[in-house]
Specification:
The protein is mainly alpha-helical. The protein has a domain of 172 residues. Helix content is 78%, strand content 0%. It is built from twelve helices and no strands. Helix 5 packs across helix 7, helix 8 packs antiparallel against helix 12 and helix 11 packs antiparallel against helix 12. The longest helix has 24 residues.
């Protein structure tokens, strides 16, 4: 019973930290933080389910642009823009072309600059553009899976890679039962990847390719430019990897 309570609290912590879904309120203890990253991908699963449900509702509508805008907005509505905030800060830091230490300081700056705005605008336009050419049900399902799988990879990076500085991400890493979390996330990633390929075929393979290429770039960029990962960089990865999947699926749909 005690273990069940710990896991339930871990779910509540994960959804409280990484989404806008209302959760029961309680004082967080280190024990409650041990396994919360195991349930981080579940937020992506919820987003994916909502995307598929919305697609089923709106696929016969004539106002396709409205449907696309809602599909693009669903992740923001569920997460409150949590990961996009990290994307904005990271874009500002990367485009500053300053020293590693200065880039870390930019990540902590609560303000956003012109490069962040331009990067977000570019991402939105590319996302909507390539999403507009995705019509096959298998491609939509692959798109939906990406939200779950990107968070599996992001969670693995938190417990396996070096942190660049103190912050919420390092707190999550230090309080987590790293071995257990890594195993649970890896199992979820494996099951999700196999299910994706079985259900969607080439679309799933394209989505997986985009996700893992984004993950490799994230590893290289974070350690070369910042000396490790931060919460902002993890948010940058989630955002860019999901955009990469949309672009990959869009290109495959056009072939």
């Amino acid at each position: 019973m005690k273990q069940f309570k710990i896991w339930f609290k871990s779910i509540a912590v994960a959804f409280s930290m990484y989404s806008k879904i209302p959760m029961p309120r309680f004082v967080w203890k280190s024990e409650d933080m041990k396994y919360h990253l195991c349930f981080f991908p579940w937020i992506g699963a919820l987003i994916g389910v909502l995307e598929v449900v919305w697609y089923q509702i709106s696929c016969s509508w004539q106002t396709s642009f409205l449907s696309l805008c809602v599909m693009a907005a669903i992740p923001l509505l569920v997460t409150g823009g949590f990961h996009v905030d990290g994307f904005l800060d990271t874009c500002d830091a990367l485009h500053s072309y300053q020293s590693m230490e200065k880039k870390r300081e930019i990540l902590k700056d609560p303000h956003i600059g012109a490069f962040a705005v331009l990067s977000l605008l570019t991402a939105v336009l590319l996302g909507l553009g390539f999403l507009s050419v995705i019509s096959e049900p298998e491609a939509i399902l692959a798109f939906a899976f990406s939200f779950f799988l990107s968070r599996c990879l992001s969670g693995l990076s938190v417990v396996l890679w070096k942190s660049a500085h103190d912050g919420m991400l390092q707190t999550s890493a230090l309080t987590a039962d790293k071995k257990c979390v890594a195993v649970v996330l890896a199992v979820q990633l494996l099951i999700g990847s196999v299910a994706l390929f079985v259900l969607t075929g080439w679309y799933g393979l394209a989505a997986l390719g985009c996700l893992f290429c984004s993950f490799l770039y994230y590893r290289w960029m974070s350690h070369k430019q910042f000396g490790g990962i931060t919460g902002d960089l993890a948010g940058y990865f989630v955002t860019t990897s999901e955009l990469a999947v949309v672009i990959g699926l869009g290109v495959l749909s056009l072939l």
